[in-house]
TrEMBL record, chain A:
This is Cytochrome c maturation protein CcmE. The keyword Metal-binding applies. One of its GO terms (biological process) is cytochrome complex assembly. Keywords: Cytochrome c-type biogenesis, Heme, Iron, Membrane, Metal-binding. It is found in: Membrane.
From TrEMBL, chain B:
This is Cytochrome c biogenesis protein CcsA. The lineage of its organism: Bacteria, Pseudomonadati, Bacteroidota, Cytophagia, Cytophagales. Residues 100-322 form the Cytochrome c assembly protein domain. Belongs to the CcmF/CycK/Ccl1/NrfE/CcsA family. PANTHER family: CYTOCHROME C ASSEMBLY PROTEIN-RELATED, CYTOCHROME C-TYPE BIOGENESIS PROTEIN CCMF. GO terms for molecular function: heme binding; heme transmembrane transporter activity. GO terms for cellular component: membrane. Keywords: Cytochrome c-type biogenesis, Membrane, Transmembrane, Transmembrane helix. The gene is ccsA. GO terms for biological process: cytochrome complex assembly. The chain crosses the membrane at residues 12-31, 51-74, 104-120, 132-152, 204-224, 236-256, 276-292, 299-318, 338-358, 378-396, 429-449, 461-478, 484-505, 517-537, 809-829. Residues 343-539 form the Cytochrome c-type biogenesis protein CcmF C-terminal domain.
Length: 134, 844
């Protein structure tokens, strides 16, 4: 066998290895029910949940609570299936959180509590910007 | 008054830049495709004229956008949403590239300049290279066109000259008054008000722009069937690009290290990965190009890698700007609705370049015989493959969102998300690749091109390897590096440093100009060692050893890793005496720190009035003068003392009242062997009224001493004042201000409580000395005995909770970066000289 063939085989093998390794570590987007099942099945890997902050009838965001140390807070997220869940976060509220139209949390259930390790915000594009103070 | 002319002229320049780019591309294309010399020259002149006009238009657009920003024309959306009147000049400059449109402009600006440089340096290649350049510029110019196609109402591009009222069409104010201009803009994100944000984006975009140069030469080479010749002019540019792009990436990392509080310089965010991958491939392409120049191998690989670099730059642009990353990245740009255009941009050049390469593939010369195992070209190739693997491994998870969208088009639901703990995930793979790179970049330097006898090679290697091994053994034992991965990385780094140092010593006698590669590889070795220590052995040093919890409301982890510091109560940490000195404010337009206790706040958070004369880095203020400060920033002065020397740290918090949180930025105390990285993790709630002790009353005369909570205090004077902030005084009203001096542990403080009689009612305005936890009130005045009654309340001392981390040997990473850049520089000069020499011989 020529060296170049060996090299090609090795390259393909490593590439497949990388993909398998990546797929093994990949997280998924799920809703709270699925996340809860995963946690109950002992899979503690961080998952992504997409949802919106809970709002009352008047469109005001409700359920945000500041932690005692002022560097943590918790909020209620409504996932795409409509389930509500209080989410705890060990850092201060990211800027623009209240303006976001979608919130993605990365984290997992610990018992009945959901702890987020990261929050990603999807903010409205600037063409939907509403308010201006005159 | 609305300044319509700026926007109108701007729109005109934008459209001119787009049209001239297309015209230049067309003329250059004809020039390249025409055989007849007379016609060719005519088309060349057309192309050049078009391109120069294009460059002038781009400069015009940039100047006008600066005019809008610097003159605060808030009727324009760009100025309104990215700046305000208080920004100092340097941050007004960074406002320019804060928005998507401005950053596209920055990219185009650099490319316009590079094109002109190329026109003047490369006569032979001008037509084909500039065809590619002008086409790229046309695509970029389309991103800022802001034109709605009539009939099908498709919007092309987003103009930086759009008016605020066009963006906010539904805002009621514009319905009643279309000519409404806001008083002030919404400002620049405070995190971006940092000097690195002034120079990082221009550097990064210069790096982006320069990747176009080797790509254009490669396309020109394929097009003209000059398969070998395109390498020589590309190589110096590829080196320049790798240096600038690398520097740009590292500056971004340094900004994150200094400004964000996640404790590192690299977070494996998709936005960071998007530039890391093309940089790796670019470095790979430099190696294959050098390999080709010396032994006629890897020409096809060079074609693939040079094209891949540019396509990956376009791909990363697509990722960060199209909104596709919305769910995965913390800091991608907001979606401007340009995703279709960005995709067209990416696909056009990807498809065109790949098709051209496939068509020409069989004609590209490649060496018939296989490279020998003990040859330099073979192992360089292995190294390049390793670099590509590094990129590939990062690219796959970063592309998950694209994959989800893509298979979604075929109705398949995919919900892949990047790994939760990105740092651990990427490090796990990248570490091993880095170890391979480290050993290769040392060992391969001693291989000869073509073939070497194994014994000769080993003889060369033995000394650097033994030196590296000894050094590694010592360091492993002294620094307790007991993780096998880190030991290997350390050994690899040391080995490449020793091996390349040997090469440099040999070259110094004969030809120092050839040492670029060796210098660059030493830089890589240093960087790897720096990364290994600073990331692998970063540790928390602010451990709470008191045995007492800070608060039972906090988590165990928080209680363990954080220190509470009360003002003027020294503690020990990291071998230093550490003491919290109080809150500080910073002047907005010059340096220095202002003690919060020395100033009176006003309604405007950015204006304070000083109670004492101050000299802040050469700017003098009298008592009663107004100081302009950055009201959103609070700094916490922390002193470190050791061996009679004092160092000051100023970690920052931005307290956001409406969001209820704090945004902390670290301050870094740098020593030779390690950085002490400190940020506040909790601060006192300033909105809550503290618990005051019962009032203590003292009846004193002017100039008399008394004690306020054991502090020696003097009522220095009492005087009548004519104005009181926030109160309108009538003819019959009286206001009196006491001037009280308190001797604190760390210098004197002034308190100025007020006693006001307004409409025959008595009002008392207390004054608080935050640093001492004291509040003074002028309770009553007795003119008959010439005495005054001063009331004093005390409260708990001010405190701050900090977290501090030790980052060992991080300086080696920064030094390594500079060494790597120097290596690229030396190599670039060498390759450019080669190019000039050959050009003089008529072989461009």
């Amino acid at each position: 066998m020529k060296k170049s063939h060996i090299l090609i085989i090795v390259v393909i093998a490593v590439a497949i290895g990388i993909m398998v390794g990546t797929a093994g570590d990949a997280s998924t987007y799920v809703n709270f029910d699925e996340a809860h099942k995963l946690a109950a099945a002992g899979k503690t890997k961080d998952i992504h949940v997409v949802g919106q902050l809970k709002k009352d009838a008047g469109g005001h965001i409700v359920g945000i609570e500041e932690g005692a140390d002022r560097v943590s807070f918790s909020f209620i997220l409504v996932d795409d299936a409509g389930k509500e869940q209080r989410v705890e976060y060990n850092e201060p509220m990211p800027p623009d959180m209240l303006k976001s139209e979608k919130v993605v949390i990365v984290g997992s259930y610990a018992g009945e509590r959901f702890k987020a390790s990261k929050i990603i915000l999807k903010c409205p594009s600037k063409y939907q910007e509403e308010g201006i103070n005159a | 008054m609305m300044h319509y002319w700026v926007g109108n002229l701007g729109h005109f320049f934008v459209i001119t830049s787009f049209v001239t780019a297309i015209a230049a591309a067309f003329a250059y294309f004809r020039a390249a495709a025409t055989e007849d010399l007379g016609n060719k020259n005519a088309w060349l002149i057309n192309g050049r004229t078009g391109y120069y006009l294009h460059a002038v238009a781009i400069v015009g657009v940039c100047v006008l956008l600066f005019v809008i920003i610097c003159n605060h024309y808030f009727e324009y959306h760009y100025a309104y949403s990215h700046s305000d009147k208080k920004l100092s000049t340097d941050y007004l400059i960074s406002t320019f590239w804060n928005g998507q449109e401005g950053s596209f402009l920055l990219w185009m600006f650099w490319q316009a300049l590079l094109g002109i440089v190329l026109i003047h340096t490369n006569k032979f290649w001008e037509a084909p290279v500039m065809t590619v350049f002008a086409l790229v510029q046309a695509f970029l110019a389309s991103m800022i066109l802001g034109v709605v196609l009539p009939g099908i109402s498709v919007k092309i591009g987003s103009s930086p000259f759009i008016l605020l009222r066009e963006v906010m069409q539904d805002a009621p104010i514009f319905k009643t008054n279309p000519n409404f201009i806001p008083e002030d803009g919404t400002g620049l994100n405070p995190l971006l008000q940092n000097y690195w944000m002034v120079i990082h984006p221009p550097t990064l975009f210069l790096g982006f722009a320069t990747t176009l140069v080797p790509f254009s030469f490669c396309i020109a080479g394929l097009w003209f069937k000059k398969y070998r010749e395109w390498i020589r002019p590309s190589l110096p540019w590829a080196l320049f690009s790798a240096a600038v792009l690398g520097l740009g990436i590292l500056m971004g990392g340094y900004w994150a290290y200094e400004t964000l509080n996640f404790g590192g310089y690299w977070n494996w965010d998709p936005v960071e990965n998007g530039v890391y991958v093309p940089w790796l491939v670019l470095v790979g392409s430099i190696h294959t190009m050098i390999s080709y120049k010396n032994s006629e191998t890897a020409l096809k690989a060079s074609v693939i890698l040079v094209i891949a670099t540019f396509i990956l730059i376009l791909y990363s642009t697509f990722l960060t700007r199209s909104g596709v990353l919305g769910d995965t990245s913390v800091h991608s740009f907001t979606d401007l609705g340009l995703s279709g255009q960005l995709l067209a941009y990416l696909l056009f050049f990807a498809v065109a370049a790949i098709v051209l390469a496939i068509v020409r593939w069989r004609e590209i010369p490649s060496s018939k015989e296989e490279a020998a195992v003990y040859s330099r070209e073979f192992w360089i190739f292995i190294g390049v493959i390793t670099l590509c693997f590094m990129g590939f491994q990062v690219l796959i998870p970063t592309s998950f969102p694209v994959w989800n969208q893509f298979v979604g088009l075929f109705g398949i639901k995919s919900s892949l998300a990047p790994p939760g703990d990105q740092i651990a995930f990427y490090s796990k793979f990248q570490l091993w690749f880095a170890i391979i790179i480290a050993f290769l970049s040392g060992a391969v330097q001693f291989l000869w091109w073509k073939k070497i006898d194994v014994r000769t090679w080993m003889q060369q290697l033995i000394i650097p390897f033994v030196v590296a091994l000894l050094a590694a053994l010592i360091i492993v034992n002294v620094r307790k590096v007991f993780d096998i991965r880190f030991v290997l990385m350390l050994l690899g780094g040391l080995f490449t440093i020793c091996a390349n140092a040997k090469i440099i010593i040999q070259l110094m006698r004969t030809s120092p100009g050839l040492s670029g590669g060796a210098v660059a590889h030493i830089g890589v070795g240093l960087m790897l060692i720096g990364v290994m220590f600073s990331a692998g052995y970063s540790r928390v040093v602010s451990l709470n050893n008191t045995g007492m919890m800070i608060s039972k409301d906090f988590s165990d982890e928080f209680n363990r890793d954080n220190l509470i510091l009360f003002i003027n109560e020294p503690r020990t940490m990291w071998g230093y005496d550490i003491e919290y000195m109080g809150e500080r404010l910073v002047p907005r337009y010059h340096g220095g720190y202002v003690r919060s206790s020395d100033v009176v706040t006003t309604v405007d958070k950015d204006l304070v009035i000083t109670k004492i004369p101050q000299n802040l880095e050469g700017v003098a203020y009298k008592a009663g003068d107004t100081i302009r400060v950055k009201g959103e920033d609070t700094y916490y002065e922390i002193q470190l003392r050791k061996d009679g020397k004092t160092y000051k740290l100023h970690p920052r918090a931005q307290i956001n009242q409406e969001m209820g949180g704090i945004l902390a930025s670290p301050d870094i105390y740098r020593t030779v062997s390690a950085d002490l990285y400190t940020h506040v993790s909790s601060v006192m709630n300033t909105t809550e009224e503290p618990e005051w002790s019962p009032l203590q009353e003292d009846t004193v005369r002017q100039g008399q001493q008394f004690f306020a909570n054991d502090y020696v205090t003097v009522l220095e004077s009492v005087e009548r004042v004519n104005t009181v902030e926030g109160v309108t005084l009538g003819d019959q009203d009286v206001a009196v201000r006491a001037h009280i001096r308190i001797q604190g542990e760390r210098g004197d403080y002034i308190a100025e409580p007020l006693f006001v009689i307004k409409d025959k009612m008595v009002g008392r305005i207390s004054d608080e000395v935050k640093d001492l936890g004291l509040r003074f009130t002028l309770l009553s005045i007795h003119p008959e005995t010439n005495t005054f009654v001063v009331g004093v309340n005390t409260r708990q001392k001010d405190w701050v909770i900090i977290k501090a981390m030790e980052k060992p040997f991080i300086n080696i990473l920064w030094i390594g970066t500079l060494v790597l850049m120097a290596g690229f520089g030396i190599a670039m000069v060498r390759r450019f000289r080669e190019f000039i020499k050959m050009r003089a011989k008529g072989q461009e």
